[in-house]
Amino acid sequence: MSQTLIRRLFNQACSRNIFILNQSLLSSHEPILPGYIGLRNTSFFNKLPAEDIWRGVTAVSNAGKKRGRGKGSGKKVAKDLNKGQSIGFGKCGRIWPGLNSPLIRGNELINQQKLNENLDRENGILKLRDSMGSFKLMKLNPIDRGWSGSKMPGRSIGPPDPVGDEEFVSFDTRVLENKIVFIMKGNMGRKRRYSVLSVTGNGNGLAGFATAKAPEVRTALRKSKNRAGQKLINISLCENRTIFHDFRTDFGKTKIFCFQKPDGYGLVCHRAIQTICKVIGIKDLYAKIEGSTNIQNIAKAFFIGLMTQRSYQYIANETNSNIVQLQKTRNRFIDVKGMPFPNSTLTQNTQEIDYMHFTLGNQIVLQRKGTVPFYVYSKGHDLHQFKKERFRNQVNVRLHKLVNAYD
């Protein structure tokens, strides 16, 4: 190989940052092998700081928030990976004079030396990192929990703030609705706010509800709670536990049919109506909603129905008739609920008035017929009915015999 060709190859190797390990290779006829290869140690993780990388994991874009993404983003917590570590102390324990140890100790110069591996340090750092991302949730009493998980609807936010020296004693406020609404501003564009609907009451017939909006959730909750305390309504209750009569009420596209129930029945209705009944003091009620289940419409329609109900005495004076209830639990015992005033100018009604039709405005609630089982018209069912016919009144006869035995 000529000297000119060797020099040309040497210049190309130097221009490409190739380090020649052995100079004797220049005089041989073997190919030149590189001893050093340049690497580009740049990536996404060392271009950006740790804050930006964690923000890409934990944050959600505005477009994603509008589409409902990122509801669990609050559970992801950014970890500070530098905690528990010091400069100069790594996995392989080594003394670096001037970095993690002094240069001179007494009259001796400290040399670089390797230390034994410290496994406790690595385990401590890993344990510290695991404790960063996890947090212990506060345990709530099942009565204090909301309708669904840890969301605000259904949860208590305490009584309204006192006005002067007047305090809202024995009042409790419950959240019915908590949602995000947007409004378009000319100078700020799309502005986000929180809308909160809450109801407050003392459990004895005094209650009110209100809606409030604010840029922050806490502010909206406080405004809604205090505003509901300023709009209290006195609601009359029958026997301090239920409504006076069945009624139908509506607001917008929402219709509610409410029915009076005996003591111990409970609240069988929509969860929003259940929450309203608890703060008012209603314990026994059945309510059926038809149409829209918008929370604000439900609250408005139910309060309208409670305010328009009439007491037994008012109905007796209006119809000039005695209001009588036949109690099934007491063998149809007649219980007089209301009597008209003696000096009433209305004529006495000779015909019997249907109390339910009168309270519902001469309307009848549609009762859907149940589906007939497939075996009703079969021969086997007819045979079963024929065999059971002789025992059809046996339970009542046995009960009467037991009652008469103690007379």
Automatic annotation (TrEMBL):
What does the UniProt keyword field contain? Mitochondrion, Ribonucleoprotein, Ribosomal protein
Keyword Ribosomal protein: yes or no? yes
Q: Where in the cell is it found?
A: Mitochondrion
Q: Name one Pfam family in it.
A: Ribosomal_uS5m_N
GO CC, sorted alphabetically, is:
mitochondrial inner membrane; mitochondrial small ribosomal subunit
Q: InterPro entries attached here?
A: Ribosomal_Su5_D2-typ_SF, Ribosomal_uS5, Ribosomal_uS5_C, Ribosomal_uS5_N, Ribosomal_uS5_N_CS, Ribosomal_uS5m_N, Ribsml_uS5_D2-typ_fold_subgr
What do we know about how this protein assembles, alone or with others? Component of the mitochondrial ribosome small subunit (28S) which comprises a 12S rRNA and about 30 distinct proteins.
The protein's name = Small ribosomal subunit protein uS5m
Which organism was this protein described from? Answer: Drosophila melanogaster (Fruit fly)
Which gene does this sequence derive from?
A: mRpS5
